[in-house]
Amino acid sequence: MNVDVKPEKNKQIDIEITIDEFIVNKHLKSSASKISNSTNIQGFRKGKVPYSIVEAKFGRDYILNNSLDGIIQEVVPDILSEQKLEYPCSPKVDILQKEPKFIISLQVPMMPEVELGDYKSLNNKQKKEKVTKKKINETIDRILESRATWEEKNITLDFPGLAKINILGKYNEQEVIKHENYDFYAVKDSKLIVPGMSEKLKGIKKGEKRNFILTLPNDWENQDLKGKNVDFIIDCIEVLEKKLPSLDDEFVKLFNKNLTTVKEFEEEIKKELNSELDYKYRIELENQLLSDLIEISKYKISSIQIETTTNQVIEERSKSISQYKMSLEDYLKAINMKEEDFYNESKKSAEQELKKIITLEEVIIKEDIQVENKEVKEEITLIKQNYADQKLIDDENLYKIVENNLKKKNSMEYLIKIANKAIKNRKK
Description:
Elements: E1 2-5, E2 12-19, H1 21-38, H2 51-58, H3 60-83, E3 92-97, E4 102-109, E5 113-115, H4 133-146, E6 149-152, E7 161-171, E8 174-186, H5 197-201, E9 209-215, E10 229-243, H6 249-255, H7 262-295, E11 298-300, H8 303-322, H9 328-334, H10 339-367, H11 373-386, H12 396-427
Antiparallel strand pairs: 1-2, 2-4, 3-4, 5-11, 6-10, 7-8, 7-10, 9-10
């Protein structure tokens, strides 16, 4: 086997490998055997078809394409081990030639490098928000809103409001929409049922019937009805009025059994808001310090590592989007974004996150940041408790991951300490 290692360029080493013919032939025969096991070929039993017959029927190129994974998995790990290369993510493999020799190109990303700027000159530019009486009242109002009830009243429907209605929609005398006892929440410019229905129902009262025409939108599920004018008949069963609970000691006790008075309730809200603002302040400070440090530092990162991380970011976003029963394509249409722009945005985000990790790891090295064995074990115990259903194995790999995460956490603490010290010095 001929292995030609090219000089490192742009944090990448290219290795050209001419694979021995006996290895290729071994995998060709293995793939042909699998093909014969899954295919009916007249005159032969499954799994007993000679290689020459399989090749004549499917072609050598087809068999070779089915052999690629096996060939690569046999050859590549040994070559990487022989070259003693350290790489941050999986190498990229390209097929350069299939005939007469089978030649592949192995593009190996090298570990990234960073030349840190003067991180000891970092400044804390963040200001923590204060909990105001207005914020407390707004939070309490939201809680009361969430506990509101709807009661039947002899009133007309207004915005926002709720009415229980029967809905019948006809197009060319054919029923196309029908809902009975439908809870219709009316707000301005609502798209519920059909855009414009809220406005048509405003002012309706119990026992009233209304008849009107509305045009179905262009994103209507039934293709044949898009843009069609539908004749609606609405029967109002009842109109309901929102009733907010009273903010008193009784409500507080029902909301939280550990609280007894409105004053205690307000103090608890204040404490929770403070915690939220502390968390927000911390995240913003970390992002600001790392962004500032990245700005004054120099990085060398393989394009393969950036591409791999970008694909991971896109995969995570796709998973998140799929939870809402949407494909990535539909999501991009909904936000009016081109695939190319989405990829570039993801790439920018991926590269920034990569630089943050690389930066913290370099701070760990430069400042010799360590964590105690006891601290790592305590964190592992906590993780295993939180993920008990996953039955995590307490092995060396888990220990190293947790240890590294704690070191990165401590390196961030170190940068924050430096930045806060700068503030104290300015005040002096």
